[in-house]
Amino acid sequence: MSVLAACGSGSGGKATLNWYINPDGQVTLNKLAKDCSTSKYDIKIQLLPASATDQRTQLARRLAAKDSSTDLMSLDPVFVPEFANAEWLAPFEGDQADKVLDDDVLKGAAETVKWDDKVVAAPQWANTQVLWYRRSLADKAGLDMTKPVTWDQVIKAAGDNGGTVGVQANKYEAYVVWINALIQGAGGNILDPSTVEKGRDAKVTIDSKAGKDAAAVIRELAKSPAAQPDFTTSNEGTSLGQMFPAKGSGEFMTNWTFVYKNYEGLIGKPGGPADKKGFKDLGWVRYPQTVAGEESKPPIGGIDIGVGAYSKHLDYAKAAAVCVTNADAQTQLAVNEGLMPSRQSVYDSQALKKAYPADLLTLFSQSVDQGGPRPKSAFYSQISSAIQSRWHSPTAVGPGTPKKSADFLSAILKGKALL
């Protein structure tokens, strides 16, 4: 930290803005840092750990120490409320607030940067999950993918036809993403949305019919032949290798938007489709329904750009944040890195229509706009850890899991238990 603090100004009085990024999209982010630098300041990339939890820890330690060298930061949306509540983020105001959060920003992404009636971050790219699958596997199972499908249908189709179902069920944040989406897809929530911003006084609602419906899906997959060998330690990367295996029918997989570009780049290579014809066997539809007839709630993720409240160059940092989140920046991230935009105009651009199938772009934007956020709480880190501790291992999840997790989460929020 002392070394970085010493780098606060460049040669000749030119300021240096430190931008802490996660590892996704490094090539394009480095280009954006160069393109958005000006005659008054240079933007310098600082790399954060790969894990969202570790990213949050490193940034929180810096900001708690009032580190003035943390100018810009790439934040997982779930940590924005915590950082804003601690007054670690400098809000955007006036014209700048209008620029980073105009009517072009999709609803799901816009909600992630608001706190206490202020715009506390700028949406850079928006992530969501869809159901990726082998068209040949769905055809073999006789599953009509032109209609909404349920988790039960997907698990049965894979299990009966030599396929698998890829999820993220390791003991980490993405497992909570799955749990939250399952619960919201059944009409419930981990916390009562009307009380969630009350922090420790929020009402815990995970012990509900929706919670039990979510647990039933996890239990069903855990006991199915469709469960992948690494089910209990699975993550976003491990399940990718099961889509185009050397032997087998492939998989159904819930995963983020990067999947399309990932497999497109692996045509003819290990882990990818054998050729362009094989790549066409990759299909995509909306996130599966938890309960038949109940509209699914696709997960919402992505990256928001925050400005450190203790930066020595607040005006420059805010201007830089506007630049690295504008439409052109979002287009580059989508086309080059598979990191999808938070702005509808970018989805409608010719650049994206050339890079992606039109129906996939529509699916992504609709999923972001209609998806379900994780609890928007200043105590989200504790909420997530509490859920993980009672829902993992997924092989032990059962009808009693929602109540166990509700009791523990309530105790954590009230300060009567420790993680």
DSSP, total strands: 10
- Any idea what the CATH architecture of the largest domain is? 3-Layer(aba) Sandwich
Q: Specify the CATH homologous superfamily of the largest domain.
A: Periplasmic binding protein-like II
Amino-to-carboxy terminus distance: 29 Å
Number of helices: 19
Estimate percent helicity: 40-55%
Structure write-up:
This protein is α/β, with parallel strands linked by helices and 419 residues long. It folds into 2 domains: 2-126 and 301-370, D-Maltodextrin-Binding Protein, domain 2; 128-298 and 375-413, 3-Layer(aba) Sandwich (D-Maltodextrin-Binding Protein, domain 2), CATH 3.40.190.10. The chain contains 19 helices and 10 strands. It has helices spanning 2-6, 26-35, 52-64, 80-85, 94-100, 107-111, 135-141, 151-160, 173-185, 209-222, 259-264, 276-279, 314-324, 327-337, 344-347, 350-355, 358-370, 380-391, 401-413; strands spanning 15-21, 41-47, 72-75, 114-115, 118-119, 122-134, 164-166, 251-256, 282-285, 300-307. The strands form 2 sheets. Strands 1, 2, 3, 6, 7, 8, 9 and 10 form an 8-stranded mixed β-sheet that branches. The protein has a two-stranded antiparallel ribbon with strand order 4-5. Strand 1 (15-21), helix 2 and strand 2 form a beta-alpha-beta unit. Helix 2 runs antiparallel to helix 14 (327-337) and helix 9 crosses helix 10. It is globular. Mean pLDDT is 95; it is low at 1-9.
